[in-house]
Amino acid sequence: RIAIVFFIAGVFTLYKMKADVKKTLAKSYIAVTSGIAAVGGVLAVIISRDFKAAWWMFHEILFTNDLWLLDMSVSKLVNMVPLEFFMNLVARIAIMFAAAVVILFVVIIIITTL
Questions:
Q1: How far apart are CA 20 and CA 8, in angstroms?
Q2: ∠ CA 11-14-20 to the nearest 5 degrees?
Q3: Rounded to the nearest 5°, which phi and psi values hold at 71?
Q4: Could you give the CA distance from residue 36 to residue 34 in angstroms, rounded to a whole number?
Q5: What is the CA radius of gyration of the chain?
Q6: Are 108 and 114 spatial neighbours (Cβ–Cβ below 8 Å)?
Q7: Model-level pTM?
Q8: Cα 10 vs. chain centroid, distance in angstroms?
Q9: What is the number of other CB atoms lying within 10 angstroms of the CB of residue 18?
């Protein structure tokens, strides 16, 4: 919701400044998408080299407590769900995100060339 408010305020500001809103937003999206692609590429290399270490670091950064650490002797989740499930989950999320970004990128390119 906060991002939507900032977006609306930014578009309103562009209109008040009499800027070309369509081109400005398109160029901004291209710049942001390029940055996301660069970060995503670096993360893909890191994750592909050592998934367990990347998974561990992801949880250390995101969670302030140790509740995400599951004990293999008592946790049903760890014993029922293999590591490959989590690897496939991460891959699916990454592919879906990348597809959405690419589709929007192509749409933006088409819009700016019209």
A1: 15
A2: 105
A3: -85, 120
A4: 5
A5: 20
A6: no
A7: 0.56
A8: 22
A9: 7
Residues 59, 39, 29: CA angle, nearest 5 degrees? 120
First-residue to last-residue Cα distance in the chain: 31
97: left (phi over 0), alpha (psi -120 to 50) or beta: alpha
Count CB neighbours of 29 within 10 A: 18
CA–CA gap between residue 61 and residue 43 (Å, rounded): 14
DSSP H helices in the chain: 2-16, 21-49, 51-62, 76-80, 83-113
Other CB atoms within 10 A of residue 75 CB: 12
Q: Are 112 and 23 in contact (CB under 8 A)?
A: yes
Name residues of the chain where pLDDT drops below 70. Answer: 67-68, 71
pLDDT single digits (tens) 71-101: 677 777 777 887 788 889 988 998 998 899 8
CA distance 109 to 26: 8
Residue 12: both structure tokens together: 């309103």
